[in-house]
Design brief:
The chain has 166 residues and is mainly alpha-helical. Helices cover 69% and strands 2% of the residues.
Length: 166
């Protein structure tokens, strides 16, 4: 239930972020080339929304195991080594995400009083995307690891869920 709710929330935020970015950039292009005017905040806001969208979208990619993977070597190894490589990959990913979360949290206090140039918002809210995105990635990585522990590898090198026959 928690994962489904979190998934829907993250999907909604990614859709809202991408839609907002497209809308802002489209308005900026139309205003600039047709009317010779510009939205002063368009570039900055779209850039920071992109950071949030990328971090949250990366969490969805982890959930769906949709990140790029090069499996030319792993497909040639015996099954035991394929499983070992899968566990190592997931372990390294978790270590990286934990380090990035900790470092993201460490830089937040320094950003609290730094303000955006064109929109009067603290940079804290944009830098918050790093730890929040990484925490969501960690949460979505846990079921993937569980499937790797309880499952087996399929022909493509992906972990399949074990099906118990009753």
């Amino acid at each position: 239930m928690f994962y489904r709710l979190l998934s829907k929330l993250v999907e909604g935020l990614v859709i809202a972020g991408a839609t907002t970015i497209v809308t802002i950039v489209t308005c900026e292009v139309v205003l600039r080339y047709l009317f010779g005017r510009s939205l002063i905040f368009a570039e900055e806001l779209s850039r920071y929304l992109m950071v949030w969208t990328v971090f949250l979208g990366s969490a969805l990619a982890i959930r769906d195991e949709a990140h790029i993977r090069i499996s030319i070597l792993s497909k040639r190894l015996p099954r035991q080594f394929q499983l070992l490589m899968t566990f190592c990959t997931h372990g390294l990913t978790m270590i990286f995400l934990v380090i990035l979360t900790v470092e993201g949290i460490r830089i937040l206090p320094r950003q609290l009083y730094q303000m955006c140039v064109t929109i009067d918002i603290s940079m804290f809210w944009f830098y918050l995307a790093i730890p929040v995105g990484c925490i969501v990635m960690i949460i979505f990585q846990l079921p993937v690891i569980k499937n790797a522990i309880c499952g087996k590898l399929n022909k493509a090198g992906k972990v399949e869920e074990r099906r118990d026959v009753a």
